[in-house]
Amino acid sequence: MHLALTDLYRARWTDMIHDEWTRNLLAKRTDLKPEAIQRTRELMDMHVRDAKVENFEHLIAVIELPDPDDRHVVAAAMHAGAELIVTMNIKDFPKERVAKYNVSAQHPDDFIVDLWDLNKHKVMEAVARHRKSMKNPPKAVEDYLDTMASQGLVQTVDALRPYAPWVI
């Protein structure tokens, strides 16, 4: 979310998207408290300008995807005028299907590398802020980069690593 504050792009989401990511995160990470995740959600809504997409639900029924439970994401993107869905689940948004709605899907690693190409200094600042915000427990630079790589952000880590000792 620190990248969303750089103004390199306009982050957009819905309450349905919030519900989905919070439910999935709490299912995978039983060590996390629901109250803390709810607080994160509230902070996202508070600090990322105009991110909340509303009144898109009427479009859900017309969207055709392999998993009907993902239609709300494309409907929200269409309603918001977004051209890109950033998701780890690329397979859920087949190129030929989402193209009909003037939307494409991109993996977060590719997305961050594209932002890096636009303005690597802003990306480095956002990454540094994110790492420094991790206080319980704090993360050493290498541990932080290893965590990013384990989450599928391999290209991003490759771009960051040469700058890591000085910037992150």
Automatic annotation (TrEMBL):
List all membrane-crossing ranges: none
Record domain VapC50 C-terminal: where = 108-162
Which stretches make up the PIN domain?
12-91
- Determine the domain of life of the protein's source: Bacteria
- An example of a Pfam family matching this protein is PIN_3
Q: What is this protein called?
A: PIN domain protein
Q: Which organism is this entry from?
A: Burkholderia pseudomallei (Pseudomonas pseudomallei)
